[in-house]
Amino acid sequence: MGSPPTHHTFRFRIPARMSTSAVLRALAARWTVALEPPATTMRSYLDTADWRLYLAGLTLEADAAGEATNLLLTSVPTGAVRARAAATGVPHFAADLPEAGNWLPVRETLSDRRLLCALELRTSTRPARVLNADGKTTARVVVEHHAVPVGGGAVRRLPRELSIVPVRGYERAAARVAGEAQRLGLVPVDGSVLAVALAAAARPAPGRRPGPGVELDPGMPAGAAMAAVLGRLREELVANEAGVREQLDDEFLHDFRVAVRRARSILKLVRAALPEREAIFVAGELKWLGDITSPARDLDVHLVQVQPGRAASGDLAPLRAHLLGQRDLAQRQLVEALDSARYHDVVKSWHSLEEVATATGSTAPIGDIATTRIGHAYRTMIRRGRAIGPLAPPEALHDLRKRGKELRYLLECFERLYPAGAVAGAVRELKVLQDNLGEYQDCQVQAAALRAMADDLYERRAAPAATLLAMGRLAEGLESREARARAEFSPRFRRFASAANRKRFDALLDGRAAKRR
Amino acid sequence: MRVLATYSIKGGVGKTTAAVNLSYLSARSGARTLLWDLDPQGAASFLFRVKPRIKGGGKALVRGRTEVDGLIRGTDFDGLDLLPADLSYRHMDLHLDGAKRPTRRLRRVLAPLRDAYDVVFLDCPPSLSLVSESVFEATSLVLVPMVPAPLPARTLDQLERFFRRQGGGPRLLAFFSMVDSRRRLHREVIDELRGTHPEVLTATVPASTIFEQMGVRRAPVETYAPKSAAAAAYRSLWEEVLSR
Question: Can you give the pTM of this predicted structure?
């Protein structure tokens, strides 16, 4: 076993009729096989909420064996070991990873995101080694029997697997053992253990989370189509709720809020397709839901600025402590709101709206309505953007950003009504402009908030001069970025309003294009 | 990639024992570790049960005609690989002598492995020759085992003088091995040398039958006698090397 292994692990499923001992006996009949003590481990697959490691081709496992935790980093397609280490505990952030070893790809991929337990497996292992005449290990074999928790304390056992791990320089030995495994009737396994286990636990496969788009047909009645879109967004909201409550990672709150914002936009822009009274009520309640999550999200954004390790983080430590205190308070208030009857009623009303929309909503084809609304949102952006000159007030840019978000939500929610890839191209172009508007507004809001906080800390004598000075520098940095973003707006908008991009939107919105792929 | 050499002009002082045990500890800590057995006797290769033979021999390797990647063998231990010895290494001086810029040759052999390993140990043959000079060029730290007797102290001085003449050289750290703390001579030599040579480490490796078993068990002491004083000594030594 060495690093870096260049050959992949062979994996086979052991048929139920064949015992583990029979497999090992069959191998021992051909080679010298040294058995090692069987063990049971709890294996946690660690990744961020949005599967950053998996999408970067990495799988990080933490095996708890007794008091030790063994970390193993492998490549997704081949199972090749990239790094391994004995750790004192399960890492939560990049900074918790061992210093020695090839952990840089994980650090770079994680950035400041939190590692969460994506799946836990209880695994019984029966390891053994294939030896040559010198007693040298030339291949490792291990029979693994995984059990996946499926809820309510129940577990589902996966079929036993035989893994054959090559030792560097002795790859042919592993290939020979794999050949023998095949001869014995063992079946080669495709797909990672993680993917198989998630499927067994009826969990979505690792990878990009599905967008808000649902399967729609342009001819579908608008009421039913809206119900499907709103249902998908409600599922997204509910899926993130536990992460928001437990404050596992900023991403949960962010995604929770995006689901709310998307739903609000859809309710506003396509309201005519919905039963009016119910839609107005839910829209109002969604505004409340957005409002109760804002303080916590704003503080998350501020906290990123003063993370340990960033510039002047030492001087800014009192500010960080202040923000963390505020964040705790905001979290308590948020959880209280999520525990309230009002929140439960919002989710219930949202669900009811979907049912009423299906039954009594507009029967006009959704394809026509969506195309009209997207076209209108696009033209509104062009019109308002063109009115923004060098002296336009910041509010004009903030308003344009809101219109841009509405356009993006419409495009994403109704994506499946259009030819494959057409919406992605339009969103990509829109994002170039939105990133600029976002940077402009975020810097402005954060700088203003920092100055207000500095006043407050000064009044209360809650921070030393060094902290206030560092906050001033931070605010200045944000204001410089804001100015750069403002200067960058015109070229970005010109690109968005260009003939080439208009052609892209025209093609998308052309009635002939609005058909199923 | 950090390259360390276990080196001594004198033989039989515990170079290979140190290289095998320290490289094992390095790998166990999670560092991707390679041990290059440069000694034609191939003791480290023997201890890891790897045949002391490389395709094309040492000449092709140091002249850049063999890809080093294909010569590396995995040991029985996670994260620890071995570049085996070869009998042709006994002519390494000649092979280097005939090459351009001979003292840079070993460094060039290791260059393609820069991203693949965190730590590389060079287990050197006992001599002060072109091979040693090439080792010093490739290494950032030379670890010198010494038995507690007057002669190794002289050897250490010679080596320091040699580095000074070369205009620097790698960092030098020394440690006492085969120490019998019951022997007054050992205690006195250790105390004296520590007083005059700050590069002498505090950790000492005892004379122990546990080390003799390495040849039979063909494994690092930590794997078969983790609770022994011998294993503890290498753990302390490795910690001290890392901290220095």
Answer: 0.69
